[in-house]
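Record minuted for completeness.

…
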Amino acid sequence: MNGDMLFSIGDLARRTGLTVKAVRFYSDVGIVPPTDRSPAGYRRYGADAVARLDLVRTLRELGIDLATIRKVVDRRASLPEVAAAHAEALEVQIRVLRLRRAVLTVAARRGSTPAQLDVIHRLARLSAAERQGLIDDFLGAVFDGLHEHPAFAAVTRSMTPELPDNPEPEQVEAWVDLAELFEDSDFRATLHGMARDLASDRAADDTTGLPRVLAEAVRAQVAPALAAGVDPASSGAEPIIAGLTAHYAHILGYPAEPGDAEVRRRLGALLESMNDPRRDRYLSLLAVINGWPVPISLAPMLEWSVEALRAGMRQ
């Protein structure tokens, strides 16, 4: 033997902070083999045993199994390779745990029954492909027969939820609510009717989504009137409705005057069909899931506009 200092199991335990039992275990399984034995037969270890045990302790604290640790200390596997593989595995575990936390948070917030918890869990743990299948089925029903329309791709993109890999609880809850809304056959039929009517009510070369353009016009022209307390049945509402009607006619390419009764009737019917609380709910949930700003409800503005249009036609 050379003159290098040798350590007992007790010495290694004191230097590494491990218990004597742990050091003996790692020695017994061959991860830290003894360098020599004393005349009395006690195991003795070289200075490299301290470094090995420090590495073993760190890897065990990181959750790496003994078989892999042995490969690392024996240099049959590189530490960077092992670290990368385990980091990837931990990322998967973290995503699973975050999803579980989100599901339990939603269930607690809702006061869910066991059956409701099962639904939340099932919808939350769908794979990306399974979620896309639900989305495609819903949007396919809404835009049935309209796939050749020039605005189809843009409109479907604007209506597609994209749940992130690591969703927050509110995003999971929004996804669950939206998935349940997908199953509302009446809502599907309502949106399909609106999409069909809008598609037939536009110039063939128009690639701008009419609902969005019209919604923007309503917000811009009606919101100030609502804030000012303008009565929709009063004369003060007429300039606003005239401007909205002219804008609608311009979008459609109609050679109509702002007071055209037929254009106003069609505009009123369209705005009334847009005023479905489920549509507002869909857009709000979509914004939460996709991380977009949640839109202000259009319902009060649509109601005001429809009432003002009806009042104007009665005069």
Summary: The longest strand covers residues 36-37. The chain has three domains: 9-76, 78-125, 127-315.
